[in-house]
Specification:
By secondary structure, the protein is an all-alpha fold.
């Protein structure tokens, strides 16, 4: 997570449409695909909830947050910073984590 960005569904759909069109998909079909994906994606539903209830209200800088950028000494059970970050991202995307363990009210 280099920079915190909150996008509405319209902006996300337009970005996906742009991407699909760049792959050679017709503009009309790219528009339909992007709309369907934005409205059905579990990931796109869970990230905004997590970001709004945690990151946007947190004192920690998202670019240096231990949850998304763990250091070796913060990892447990033989995990690496990369595997810990991947696991943290997965629990957000699956909607399994609502309260960030690194949250500091700002």
């Amino acid at each position: 997570m280099e920079e915190l960005q909150v996008l509405n569904k319209l902006a996300m759909a337009r970005a996906l449409k742009e991407f699909a069109a760049s792959l050679g998909i017709s503009e009309r079909f790219a528009d339909i695909l992007s709309q369907v994906h934005v409205h059905s994606s579990v990931i796109l539903k869970n990230w905004p909830v997590f970001l709004k209830s945690n990151c946007l209200r947190c004192r920690n800088d998202p670019q240096h947050c231990a949850f998304f950028h763990p250091k070796e000494e913060e990892c447990v059970g033989g995990a690496t910073p990369i595997s810990t970050r991947q696991a943290n991202i997965a629990v957000v995307e699956l909607g399994k984590l609502r309260q960030c363990p690194c949250f500091k009210a700002g």
